[in-house]
Amino acid sequence: MAEATQIFHFIEVKEITRLFANPSKSLRDYFDIGRCMASLVERQGENAKKGLRSKVAKAAGVSPESLNKCCQFVEKYSEAQLAEVESLGIGWGLLAASFCIEPTAKRHKLLKEAKAGEWTSRELLTNIRGDTHTSRGGGRPQRKLKSFGLAQDLREVGKQCEKFSKWIRMICAEKQGHEKRLRRLKDEEKLALARITSSVVIALKSNEKECKELLLFLRELEGVLNDK
User: Fold this and answer.
1) Residue 92 lies inside a defined structural domain of this protein
2) 90 burial level (CB within 10 Å; 0-12, 13-18, 19+)
3) What is the dihedral of CA 127, 130, 135, 138, to 10 degrees?
4) Domain limits for position 44
5) The three-state (H, E, C) secondary structure of 45-62, written as one string
6) What's the average model confidence in pLDDT over 14-33?
7) Which candidate in 47, 59, 118, 145 could, as Cys together with 4 as Cys, close a disulfide (CB 3.0–4.6 Å)?
């Protein structure tokens, strides 16, 4: 506690704490937090860099991960580039989740798709993990499915089908709302959404064949199990 109190006396830490306390932080606020941290590291010297973020995060009452994302922000963008980032019209959650994507042009392209598709940061990360061209930062590579026996595997299929059906019902229920929002999209947003739509159509067609095969197998299985 004494160490956290001591470090709080630095002007940069006071500013970081003030900015984090703002409930409606803008991208500029997150950028300024990262800039304050960079200034503190410069003043303290490279030797003090190790463990400094954790100490500052503790003093500011935030997680080290939250502070690290702000530091990444200023590492990846300059002051002159901030206006371009703000023009994307996205929130901090999406931007922070995209820092693992390189180069910047590719990151911005994906962020535009995320905005057009109204993705959450979790959905963006899922997309990143599924991108075979992403080299790092989006999480561990997805593991191959491991069978836990027919009964357990079928239970999992049932759970996923239920989730899938809920998504379909939700999208179809909002058809009119989606059609209205489509008219307000910019050309680049329409192109991004068109790419997403095409990928989903391909996935659905592929799943249609696999679902038919599974349904045929299950009917055969029912026949065997019900045979007395």
Assistant:
1) no
2) buried
3) 50
4) 2-87
5) CHHHCCCHHHHHHHHHCC
6) 95
7) 59
